[in-house]
Design brief:
transferase (chains A, B, C, D), ATP binding (chains A, B, C, D), 13 strands, about 35% helix, nucleotide-binding (chains A, B, C, D), ATP-binding (chains A, B, C, D), 4-stranded mixed sheet, alpha/beta, 10 helices, about 325 residues, homotetramer, UDP-N-acetylmuramoyl-L-alanine:D-glutamate ligase, EC 2.7.1.92 (chains A, B, C, D)
């Protein structure tokens, strides 16, 4: 059955709003960053990664965001364009802001961390008046990312994008993507995440992220059912709660929960797993696939990305995902 | 007919959240402030004034707010208590914030202005975690004031109060009270005013305030009907749009508009007219009166306040309002 | 003997730079401010008070400062002008800053406190480029006040004024006037106070203020001699250290210390004592009087001011000081 | 003759205070940064580079600064220690500050630029109370760098270090190193640079940097003689004014100017030229060499560094400098 009805006649499949930044991935891995000497530059940021992923999967995509007026900003813009993403609503900052940076440290496949530069970054300076209503009206899906809610004026830009999406019936996806270091307090985060989530059709996040959103609620057992039902009482059709290694569960309004097997991977690092999963899952849903098949497709896309050095650059095509699934099914890929 | 059903069995009639400050009213009036030498101190702030007004009218009232840990803060708290207002949710700041000040200048009855001190004020430091859910659950009405949305963390405190009110079925009144000097931009204001207004049952504001809220909308003729209908599509039951000297119009969901005559006054200054009107109108509504009768009662209360030197201190009792109406009807009070 | 040689041929006797603000003095005294209802407005700020004092004593005076573009700022400017003070270097702020306020509370003649409004005040926004070199070159004395060092850009304006004064041989007086609430830390204060004091000819402050300046020094016994000698090694000729009720001691380069009796007063409040003392003392010094006589004259001026409700408005003329001294000598004035 | 007498019996030759940061040098050179994909990490910051240079030249060195509590900060600290620099006064920040970054772009040997990350950096958070008086008392030379004056509390830490150096007779070197992007205005910069320069024995800067310092002065012809004389009237013994390609001129108190030939180089980039020059020149001066010989030695050190990919890592030993000079003298090195 169909849980979400996408407005099929629109020219743009997928538009995301939010963070655009630079990943600087250590070339020397399996050691602390104190000992790495060289870094490779990639476009990063969760909504950027998902959009690149959707574009690689053949979707018509666009991005709403703000870049610094410097070499890093121009690199981001040209990378998006080379990947077929519409950048007509990617605005250039004129106040001297910088591009957010994420230096990644891969001590081991399971011990990865990030050193962030998030002061005075351009992406958080997107203004509500800079969001193009027509682009959202022309899109089947608008994806918002929680990090863009962290500061004014980006926060207001996201709420205005939500208002446009509600007005025009664009399906709204909320990727929680909670990064505590850009927020003042968990309470502040919970208030704005809740205000945004009320308006969303599909919500994806970890159990810990939903716990943060329930700061003012009563859910002592951290029940997924209680969490999901809260959002069904607003606008949600699908709520996906991720439980780390135990896998993700998709809840739908009828009280059903859905799960899918994941695929093995020779893990290099864990970064990018969620973004590639989100792209694969949404792609499947927009093809009219079942939730289970969409989840499996997302899992395979995630396995490809975590086997690679980069996030954005490793986002697979449909053929690559299908090929990976087939190789897994033939037993050719096993956990390293 | 009844437009709003109040949850009648609750012990608290009316609770407001927001600004608490000090008015310093020039004792020497009808001259510029450069020439005034002495000032008298009153409790001020729109939601504080309305709450004092409701209390004078015999309602059980409470306030949710934050005061400075100084002589001004303690004066405010003791004044509220002397007026029978529950201050159990009036929190004292511990960060060195000051009390907001409003020096009033009365050059003539129609030429009044305010000199504001709003930097680092305690009232804008109320935190979401400090808002008592039980107090809102026990109240028939929660009034929010737009100025409390101007800055974090007070902004989040208001949104959390709205969440509690929605959860418990408390009737929500939104007094727009837009003061540009505490806001970054009209766009920022519009985004948060709209997010708040979506959840409100009764909205009161001037045509100019509603225009600001429509920054991102299309209402080229500034049509009251278009404005009111927008909010009826969310939660509103009554939208009151004030047109200055031409009077106020109340819109209700059925497409009806309501108006009432105003009462003459020997005007000293115009400050406080809106607050006393709001108190009188809400009082009437909570008595089950018609909208017209409630509006008339509010108008009479406003006429009393603008004939006086203070705002909060001049808020009338029911007897005083009725007496004023009778004297007007007998022709004893005419415009000065 | 003469300790300081003033450049006598200049047209301006005395120019001060720094804080201009408004005192709001409680009219109802001998009670906590929670219970005072009316306030009277005066010009305030230590360097403003001293300048008004010097002008009342017949000196040619000027002020270098910044006022808010509002009624309070205009009141200050007109009050200075009415008192014969040159305001050609009193600049009006154009950024929306406010006038600093000081609400005074007089619980008893010996228990007085101040409630300050110092956020976003105009006086701390004076810029170095706004300081007129010619005015300082034309003045016999430049007085700086420590509060003006508390924040940029006022801090830089004071250092630039000091540079001009050194260049032109203007005698520099430093009134320490340390107010902790406008400073980040005692260390920050000590650094800038020391940098400024190195360039000054006359330094006046309390023992506690000099202790703060010695944060990084070694003066375990809080020895006045050690303190004074430090500044004689730089530029100082006279260092006055105030010991509250025990009186003030003036140190001079030759290792001498000077003291003078004080005069009785029927004390209303203690505010303004230091400012009137400074004006009287400097007046005497500029007349070529001995240090002892100058100190006595300052003490008499102080006794007059603390017997009055205001600070600035109570600054006496030469005749009033002389008359007060005579009445004290005749035993007509005794401690209340 | 000897222009500066160093206090020769101290155990530490050279201590610097100020900026510690990370250079990220593009590995792919001669192209815009939009097209560079990988970067190599080095320790950077002008005073850090000079200290590393002094250490390579065999001097006993120490550093006074603050590092972030992260992988970048720990890398800096361990690099300094590996280079024999005393880090006992390198403090670790505990407020979540980041390490300053400088991405270098080498479009051509003569077209180099830097993309700076200077928001919320640890080095500007050094506090005056963290500066160790004993270390400065034990050092022959204290070098201060202008960038450390850009913000509080680092600004106060530098002024306190200057106070300690004056107290103990440590020779003070001021490397102007003016970077406009961290300053509010040229006026603010001029005020603090002048306050610092008054106390310095040796001042090195470009003509443009001295012009900035003369914002409030009268030197319409940008005369080096006027500039140098200003500082001789305070504490300076040597003032070096750099005129880019036309070379540097050293002025000494007796009205003499000194110049030295520079050495050819196969230039990769121009970064680091000034830092290696400063290290070489000061090394020579501390050996008791003539100013001309010291300048020549500095020039050769600079030629070595600009022929290399890095700054700090390329700082030469005495043998390398002497060898380079000999090879130049034999005509083995010519401009590329």
């Amino acid at each position: 059955m169909t849980y979400v009805s996408f407005p099929d006649t629109r020219k743009m499949d997928f538009t995301a709003i939010g963070r655009l930044c630079i990943d600087l991935n250590a070339n020397e891995i399996n050691r602390p960053m104190e000992e790495t000497m060289t870094f490779t530059k990639y476009v990063g940021g969760s909504p950027a990664n998902i959009t690149i992923g959707m574009s690689r999967l053949g979707m018509e995509t666009a991005f709403i965001g703000k870049i610094a007026n410097d070499q890093m900003g121009r690199f981001i813009n040209s990378y998006l364009e080379r990947n077929g993403i519409d950048t007509s609503n990617v605005v250039t900052d004129d106040t001297g802001a910088v591009t957010g940076l994420a230096f990644t440290e891969i001590k081991s496949p399971t011990d990865c961390s990030i050193l962030m530069y998030r002061d005075h970054v351009a992406d958080l300076l997107l203004q509500s008046r800079e969001v193009q209503e027509q682009l959202i009206a022309d899109s089947k899906v608008l994806l918002i990312s929680g990090t863009a809610l962290a500061k004014s004026p980006s926060r207001e830009a996201v709420f205005q994008a939500l208002a446009y999406a509600k007005k025009h019936g664009t399906i709204i996806v909320f990727d929680l993507d909670y990064r505590p270091y850009t927020w003042t307090s968990a309470e502040e985060t919970a208030v704005y995440y809740n205000l945004a989530a009320e308006k969303c059709d599909i919500i994806l996040g970890t159990r810990e992220e939903f716990d943060m959103m329930e700061t003012f609620d009563h859910n002592p057992d951290h029940s997924d059912q209680v969490t999901a039902q809260k959002w069904f009482d607003f606008s949600a059709k699908i709520v996906i709660i991720k439980h780390g290694k135990e896998g993700s569960i998709a809840y739908t309004g009828e009280g059903l929960s859905h799960q899918a097997d994941s695929y093995p991977a020779r893990v290099v690092k864990t970064f990018g797993a969620g973004d590639s999963y989100a792209a694969g899952f949404l792609y499947g849903l927009m093809q009219g696939w079942t939730i289970e098949r969409s989840m499996a497709f997302g899992s395979a896309a995630a396995s490809i990305v975590i086997s690679s050095h980069s996030c954005s650059d490793a986002m697979p095509t449909v053929e690559q995902v299908n090929d990976y699934i087939e190789r897994c099914n033939r037993g050719e890929i096993t956990v390293s």
